[in-house]
Amino acid sequence: MKWKAKASIALLLCSSVTAAGFMLFSGDDSGLAKVHDGIESQFTEVSHIDGDGLSALNQENTILFDVREAPEFSVSHLKGAIHVDPGMSEQDFIQQYADLSKGKTAIFYCSVGQRSSDLANRVQKALISSGAKAAYNLEGGIFKWHNESRPLFTKGTERTSYVHPYNPIWGRLVKDQENTRY
């Protein structure tokens, strides 16, 4: 299954060249929107929520899952997010987080939404069966959140303006290149 996701990303990268010869990775949200469209078509059973929708939710009834690698999470994350290994099995996820999610809306995010949509797709039915209200993927991931100048945190409640760019190619979707850190 993972090879299909990687093949989809590779196809998206190869097909993202415009007539002018520039890649969609231009640091504006049109590139993120195109990536998100591809994610939505790949994960048709996953619901998505944008930054405004997430901000409007009651924080006490929301649980955030950051589905990135540990070095990405250590640079910055959304306030109160729980770091989750992107390759975590459905069984391990439910065993560790079902009780914490009871009565809450679960939000999954990663850099752009690929890894988080994959995990949400694998665990959402079991999570909701275990008592979660709903499960969503954050549209555009932490990159869009950062591009919209929304708050990011590191080490508890310490605010930061930095975001991990994942790699030099995907990092081009971040508008403020001065605030990327590996």
Automatic annotation (TrEMBL):
Domain Rhodanese, chain residue ranges per copy: 58-154
Checking CDD domains in the record gives: RHOD
Superkingdom of source: Bacteria
Coiled-coil intervals in this record?
Answer: none
Pfam families from the UniProt entry = Rhodanese (PF00581)
Q: What keywords tag this UniProt record?
A: Signal
Record keyword Signal present: yes
Signal sequence segment? 1-19
What is this protein identified as? Rhodanese-like domain-containing protein
Ranked from the top, the taxonomy reads: Bacteria, Pseudomonadati, Pseudomonadota, Alphaproteobacteria, Sphingomonadales
